[in-house]
Design a protein that fits this description.
- About 45% of the residues lie in helices and about 10% in strands.
- The protein has about 350 residues and is α/β, with parallel strands linked by helices.
- The protein has one domain: Alpha-Beta Barrel (TIM Barrel).
- The longest helix is centred in the C-terminal third of the chain and has 18 residues.
- InterPro entries: Aldolase_TIM, DeoC, DeoC/FbaB/LacD_aldolase.
């Protein structure tokens, strides 16, 4: 039997798990992790010399990536605090062929209050309940999402540019961006032409992303590289660097539709690229893993990666997002266990 380590009160009794959570989870959320800020990447001219001769040590990357889920861990109240932080970085997403305004409305309501009220109070967050980083939908669903989220401060992100393949003609892809922005999207998740990377056509890739950035206007541009299609980590690094030079505000791993989506080695390679870009330009670019991230453990692993490689600024939703639809339910389930000591059925926590 595990010994109860909660503190003894003055009357000789121990507080309930809920009261312990109330007293401690909020207190261990570092101030540096609270509150997003606006940021844009102005880009640079295309500079192939920054990436042409790059070499990626695959075995070293894989060894480093393997430590994320083994050597590093956070427990108890600190784990709960990190899971609350993860919620604020989630792009809650629905990208299904049968999406309707009603489904988007339900998702938006979950985005506003991702945790049940009783859990929010038990965690001591009643004065500032957490909400997700954004809601991500198709362009035709942007207007219903904007309406449902009005007054919440949660931005609407829209995939565009012929998602997920990105193989429609460029004028149509740019028109789709402009349509989504006109409908109210504050963030645009574009997909690059993977063939430009596979053929080493860096000027073509740069021009494409730069045109998309211009079409976004005030909306932030998140460049999806489709890393499962890029074959090598060298290609991943080079595509990351070109997208950032062209003005991408975020680089994102995947559409979620490839055979291989977000992996730790790919994420580490992209993070090293944006760190190098920051060293060369002084600019901060965001990162978004997407596709295949489903559990609270996944959230903790990627938060650990961001903190260790880049530091606290990249634990803010303006520089880190997690593309997910099912992860939130598992996070809520883990937080309920933290508060009550019991696991609820996954069906007990509504997705939307």
């Amino acid at each position: 039997m595990t010994q109860d380590s909660s503190p003894i009160q003055q009357d000789g009794t121990r507080p309930s798990r809920a009261k312990t959570a109330l007293q401690t989870v909020k207190s261990v959320l570092p101030k540096a992790l609270v509150g997003p800020s606006e940021h844009r990447n102005p880009g640079t001219a295309l500079k192939p010399e920054w990436f042409d001769t790059i070499q990626v040590n695959l075995s070293a990357i894989e060894r480093r990536a393997a430590t994320m889920g083994t050597r590093r861990s956070v427990k108890k109240n600190y784990q709960a605090a990190w899971l609350v932080k993860a919620i604020t970085c989630i792009d809650l997403t629905t990208l299904a062929g049968d999406d309707t305004p009603g489904r988007v409305h339900r998702l938006a309501m979950k985005a506003r209050r991702p945790l049940r009220d009783d859990l929010v109070e038990a965690l001591g967050l009643g004065d500032a309940p957490p909400k997700v980083g954004a809601v991500c939908v198709y362009p035709t669903m942007v207007a219903p999402a904007v309406k449902a989220l009005r007054g919440s401060g949660i931005p609407v992100a829209s995939v565009a540019t012929g998602f997920p393949a990105g193989l429609t003609p460029l004028p149509q892809r740019l028109a789709e961006i402009r349509y989504a922005v006109e409908e109210g999207a504050g963030e645009i998740d574009i997909v690059i032409t993977r063939a430009h990377v596979l053929l080493g056509e860096w000027q073509a890739l740069y021009d494409e992303v730069a045109a998309m950035r211009e079409a976004c206007g005030p909306a932030h541009l998140k460049a999806i590289l489709g890393t499962g299609d890029l074959k090598t980590l060298r290609n991943v690094y080079k595509a990351s660097m070109v997208a950032m030079q062209a003005g991408a505000d975020f680089i994102k791993t995947s559409t979620g539709k490839e055979d291989v989506n977000a992996t730790m080695p790919v994420s580490l390679t992209m993070i090293r690229a944006l760190r190098d870009y920051g060293d060369l330009t002084g600019e901060r670019v965001g990162f978004k893993p997407a596709g295949g991230l489903k559990t609270a453990k996944d959230a903790l692993n990627w938060l650990t990666l961001m903190k260790e490689e880049l530091g606290h600024p990249w634990l803010q939703p303006d520089l880190f997002r997690i593309g997910a639809s099912s992860m939130l339910a598992d996070i809520e389930r883990q937080l309920e266990h933290h508060v009550t000591g019991q696991y609820a059925s996954a069906a007990h926590h509504a997705m939307a």
